[in-house]
Amino acid sequence: MQLLSDPLFVAAALLAVCLLGVSKGGFFGLGVMGLPLLSLVVHPLQAAAILLPTAIAQDALTIWNYRRDWSAWNLKVMIPSMVVGMAVAWLLAASLSAAHIRLMVGLIAALFVVRQWTSGLFARFTPHPNTATGIVFGAIGGFTTLLANAGGPAWQIHLLPQRLDKLTYVGTVTLLFAVSNLFKIPGYGTLGLFTWDNLVAGLALVPAALLANYAGIWGVRRTSPEMFFRIAYVLMFLIAVELIRSSVMELWWP
To answer: Which of 25, 65, 102, 119 has the lowest tally of Cβ within 10 angstroms?
Structure first.
């Protein structure tokens, strides 16, 4: 119960699972903030393990809501390569320090925000979606989701140019997250991340996560998220900068 007695951890964890819940409800992008935020107070892989029970509970709820809305072709192409990417990340995870992983999380989050801010400038360089892009970005997303809980940005590069129906897009990404989270269970287990303290903290956060999930599902069907995302991206960028700064200081200027 040591984690739950730390007010700073509890505050960061509650905000992280709420962001994940709203994201899984359909506001994709916000969930990328969850792990960087929690990584400010605990080891990044520990943060990922703590968030996993809430993510799986949210997956079950979200899949039910989007059970008829998904792209079979995209899932057939992307899931096998995603699993390969996760396997490569698992092989590397044990040899990376907390600072290295924190730096990776910060860079991924920062690049995600910069990509959102400059998407119009580089739209013509976006690859045309096909089987090859599905395999490549499926694998990259698998790698980043295991280490940084951030598979979404890579998967979006392949999915967004297809201009899928909104609900089909949400359902497809939801299933990608769900499958990746199931594969994280043996991965994190073999890395020794499922300690009693981590599991208790993760399960205690499930109610808040599910409430946020409902809010996301309700909101994605009724609201225009432009201003919401503008604010969220600024906050995400600031968190990313702090993760990069602290990890660089730890690695090169101890």
So the answer is: 119
Residue in the block written with tokens 């072709």? 73
Exposure of 107 in the CB half-sphere (CA atoms within 13 A): 10
Residue keyed to tokens 């073999």: 190
* Domain spans of the chain, in order of start: 3-252
Q: Pick from 19, 24, 22: which is nearest to 35 by CA? A: 19
Q: Please, what sign has the CA dihedral across residues 116, 120, 121, 123?
A: positive
**pTM metric for this prediction:** 0.76
Half-sphere exposure of residue 43, counting CA atoms within 13 Å on the CB side? 13
Tell me how far apart the alpha carbons of residues 17 and 54 are, in angstroms, rounded to a whole number. Answer: 7
Unique residue bearing structure tokens 């939801």: 174
Q: Which two tokens stand for residue 136?
A: 């490549």
Lookup: tokens for 83? 């699993």
For 227-246, how does the pLDDT look when each residue is reduced to its tens digit (9 = 90+)? 555 666 676 677 778 778 87
Q: Which residues contact 146 (CB under 8 A, 6 or more apart)?
A: 48, 85, 86, 89, 90, 93, 180, 184, 187
Closest CA to 38 of 118, 109, 121, 130: 109
CA 40 to chain centre: 16
Average pLDDT over residues 150-159: 79
